[in-house]
């Protein structure tokens, strides 16, 4: 098989070669320290080694910084000033007190040290990505890159690098990897995510390595190519990739032989609905991929789940018609005081401007508390945080927090010239709905003197608690729209903690019990003439998308990377078949059976197990 | 505590390169420095932390409030002012 995938050109040139899949954690490793840091004066807990010979967090940070500084010096000596600056900044991140504190705090609380560093990196990166400036937000990738390097030093993992010159394929390439791998081993690069202005692209251009980013679907295509039975009989027997850094396209083939001239003309379902990406890094890539429909023309709205301003470009490039869920927790977590109205308004405004009037954005009020604890709204310790004071319930303890956020959203919408849409988390009762309505009215009333008055704010209820699904008809009469959060809905319905590894197999939203609640929500919304979307993970899963549309869901909000896959899955089936699938799913014995039915309908091999 | 307000004139504002400059400058002085957006008292960042500075989300033309304590407080404030006010500096390649 061959698949031609369009992305964005990030570094010019043409290259082809065997695919080498980079996974998080691969790469060159720095040497471990031989003696502890004599100047260390920090917390005693983090200074403890988890195991003999394992570096402490601070030692690992010091080693990472030294390695990055060394690389930066060598790059500067070679005249690669931009790259030297990037790695120099990474060296500063490696010794950043905020990163150290965040990691040590988690380690002191009992988290394993490498995980503590990774989580701290994620927390700090999220804060930077939420700052609202897309150029700065891209530095979040550097923080994650550095945190990963430090974590690898702590856990002493083995390095993994290509053995022969290869095309690197990854979800997102860490900026420092290209600086470390010998240039002779890297023929080209293709990534699922990323942008032409990302640091990894700068490194590629500096070395004349062709690179395509945002090649949505490439990881899935590579999976399929790796399983292609025919390739086993070919001489090379290894997936082969062609990277066209001028056109911004990638061809994935099951073997070198299949990548003959003209093989690039082979088109798969993804390509038919793929927009033509820009060919220069500066091209904004505005495109209209056409509406998502089933094979017989039933329209399904495909929108995106986003968390930072930086996700917006990716979502639009993938063809998102809007945002079904803009998570705002990153603005609130990891701080000692709440974000100001002005700072929030700025962040929301930028996102709303990017999507514009024709692509509505639903912003979810901060879903914090419970397991996502925040110092400034802390209450008494809870035995069951998932069943505790979280989400909208916090408004009964701190009304002002939500009033400020609502005003910021309303103001941002007025600034951007769009209609504000807000989602309320953890709605469980009609009283919760009334609470949100009251907050909205009060926020709008007190917004008055700060500029243009925005149009009426539309309010949606998250349906993630079973009670909400069961009274969806009553809620739909009070709210403007509903959005089903299947991740939490699954855990509450099956009474299985999402974080409990022993119960991981139960966290499948395609369980008939959950599907029956989805059906109730659909019927409740329909009865009141209100739209209902699904924003949980299962919406981005081809099996899930089929079942949900069959149940009557008209809007799927998914991770940007899944938009192409869902669009393709729906394009191959008729609505009538989806409805039959949904009916059968409601009476199926378990989620596995539902997935088998969906897989049959899609014409793919049944999933194992 | 000595404090100044700077209008950030650099085209690359407080992106990675100038943020790195500020952090290195603070490290080279015997002083503790805090940087905040002038209009947002809650956003204070430790001058030793590049990630905290980046998270401020400062754009060109914004005003920042910089405070310093310690032996070199006055010198470090002057140095930071020089870094951020300069609107003639070229942003170079990577921000």
Please provide a written account of the structure:
The complex is a heterodimer of chains A (609) and B (95). Chain A is α/β, with parallel strands linked by helices and 609 residues long. Chain A has 24 helices and 17 strands. In chain A, helix 21 (542-551) packs across helix 23 (575-586) and helix 23 runs antiparallel to helix 24. The longest helix of chain A has 21 residues, at 57-77. Chain B is of the alpha+beta class and 95 residues long. Chain B is built from three helices and four strands, in the order βαββαβα. Chain B starts with a strand and ends in a 10-residue tail after the last helix. In chain B, 45% of the residues are buried. Residues 90-95 of chain B have low confidence and may be disordered. The A-B interface holds A 81-83, 85-86, 88-89, 92-93, 96-99, 124, 127-128, 130-133, 135-136, 139, 142-143, 199, 202, 337-340, 342-343, 346-347 and B 14-17, 19-20, 23-24, 37, 39-43, 46, 48-52, 54-57, 59, 92-95.
Q: Which SSEs are present, and which pair or pack?
A:
The complex is a heterodimer of chains A (609) and B (95).
Chain A: E1 2-6, E2 8-11, E3 14-21, H1 44-47, H2 57-77, H3 81-94, H4 97-108, H5 113-129, H6 134-137, H7 140-155, E4 166-170, H8 175-180, E5 186-191, H9 199-207, E6 211-213, H10 218-227, E7 240-244, E8 249-253, H11 269-273, E9 292-293, E10 299-306, H12 309-317, E11 323-326, H13 329-332, H14 341-355, E12 361-364, H15 399-416, E13 421-424, H16 430-447, E14 458-463, H17 466-470, H18 472-478, E15 481-484, H19 486-493, H20 512-527, E16 532-534, H21 542-551, E17 555-558, H22 563-571, H23 575-586, H24 591-602
Parallel strand pairs in A: 3-4, 4-5, 5-6, 10-11, 10-17, 11-12, 12-13, 13-14, 14-15, 15-16, 16-17
Antiparallel strand pairs in A: 1-8, 2-6, 3-7, 7-8, 9-10
Chain B: E1 3-7, H1 16-27, E2 32-37, E3 45-46, H2 50-55, E4 63-69, H3 73-85
Antiparallel strand pairs in B: 1-4, 2-3, 2-4
Helix pairs in contact in B: 1-3
């Amino acid at each position: 098989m061959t698949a031609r995938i369009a992305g964005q050109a990030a570094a010019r040139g043409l290259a082809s070669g065997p695919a080498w899949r980079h996974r998080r954690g691969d790469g060159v490793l720095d040497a471990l320290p031989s003696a502890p840091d004599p100047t260390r004066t920090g917390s005693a807990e983090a200074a403890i080694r988890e195991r003999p010979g394992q570096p402490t967090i601070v030692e690992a940070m010091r080693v990472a910084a030294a390695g990055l500084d060394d690389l930066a010096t060598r790059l500067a000596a070679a005249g690669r000033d931009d790259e030297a600056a990037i790695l120099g900044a990474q060296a500063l991140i490696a010794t950043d007190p905020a990163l150290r504190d965040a990691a040590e705090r988690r380690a002191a609380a009992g988290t394993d040290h490498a995980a503590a560093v990774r989580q701290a990196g994620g927390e700090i990166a999220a804060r930077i990505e939420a700052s609202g400036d897309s150029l700065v937000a891209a530095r979040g990738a550097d923080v994650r890159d550095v945190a990963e390097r430090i974590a690898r030093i702590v856990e002493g993992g083995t390095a993994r690098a290509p053995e022969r010159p290869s095309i690197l394929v990854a979800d997102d390439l860490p900026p420092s990897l290209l600086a470390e791998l010998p240039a002779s081993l890297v023929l080209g690069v293709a990534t699922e995510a990323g942008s032409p202005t990302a640091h990894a692209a700068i490194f590629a251009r500096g070395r004349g390595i062709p690179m395509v980013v945002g090649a949505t679907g490439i990881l899935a295509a590579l999976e399929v190519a790796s399983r292609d039975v025919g390739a086993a009989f070919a001489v090379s027997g290894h997936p082969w990739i062609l990277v066209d850094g001028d056109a911004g396209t990638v061809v994935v083939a099951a073997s070198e032989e299949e990548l003959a001239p003209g093989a690039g003309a082979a088109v798969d379902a993804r390509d038919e609905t793929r927009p033509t990406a820009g060919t220069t890094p500066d091209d904004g890539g505005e495109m209209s991929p056409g509406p998502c429909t089933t094979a017989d023309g039933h329209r399904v709205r495909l929108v995106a789940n986003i968390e930072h301003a930086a996700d917006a470009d990716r979502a639009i490039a993938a063809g998102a018609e809007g945002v079904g869920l803009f998570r705002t927790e990153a603005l609130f977590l990891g701080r000692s005081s709440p974000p100001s109205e002005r700072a929030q308004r700025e962040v929301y405004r930028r996102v709303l401007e990017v999507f514009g009037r024709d692509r509505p954005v639903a912003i979810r009020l901060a879903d914090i508390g419970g397991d996502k604890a925040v110092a400034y709204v802390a209450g008494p310790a809870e035995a069951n945080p998932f069943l505790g004071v979280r989400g909208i319930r916090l408004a009964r303890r701190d009304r002002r927090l939500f009033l400020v956020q609502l005003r910021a959203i309303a103001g941002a919408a007025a600034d951007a010239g769009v209609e504000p849409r807000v989602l309320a988390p953890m709605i469980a009762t009609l009283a919760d709905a009334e609470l949100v309505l009251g907050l909205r009215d009060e926020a709008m009333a007190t917004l008055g003197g700060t500029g243009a008055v925005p149009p009426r704010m539309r309010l949606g209820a998250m349906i993630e608690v079973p009670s909400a699904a069961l009274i969806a008809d009553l809620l739909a009469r009070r709210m403007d729209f509903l959005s089903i959060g299947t991740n939490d809905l699954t855990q509450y319905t099956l009474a299985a903690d999402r974080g409990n590894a022993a119960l991981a197999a139960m966290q499948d939203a395609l369980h008939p019990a959950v599907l029956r609640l989805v059906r109730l929500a659909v019927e409740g919304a329909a009865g009141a003439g209100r739209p209902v979307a699904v924003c949980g993970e299962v919406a981005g899963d081809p099996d899930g998308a089929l079942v949900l549309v069959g149940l009557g869901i008209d809007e799927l909000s998914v991770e940007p990377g899944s938009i192409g896959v869902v669009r393709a899955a729906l394009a191959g089936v008729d609505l009538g078949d989806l409805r039959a699938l949904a009916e059968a799913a409601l009476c199926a014995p378990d989620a596995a059976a539902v997935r088998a039915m969906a897989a049959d309908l899609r014409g793919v091999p049944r999933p194992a197990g | 505590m000595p404090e100044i307000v700077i209008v950030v004139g650099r085209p690359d504002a407080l992106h990675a390169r100038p943020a790195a400059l500020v952090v290195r400058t603070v490290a080279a002085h015997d002083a503790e420095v805090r940087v905040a957006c002038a209009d947002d008292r809650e956003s204070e960042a430790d001058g030793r932390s590049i990630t905290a500075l980046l998270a401020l989300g400062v754009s060109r033309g914004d005003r920042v409030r910089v405070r310093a304590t310690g032996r070199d407080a006055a010198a470090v404030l002057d140095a930071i002012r020089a870094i951020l006010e300069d609107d003639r500096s070229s942003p170079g390649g990577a921000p």
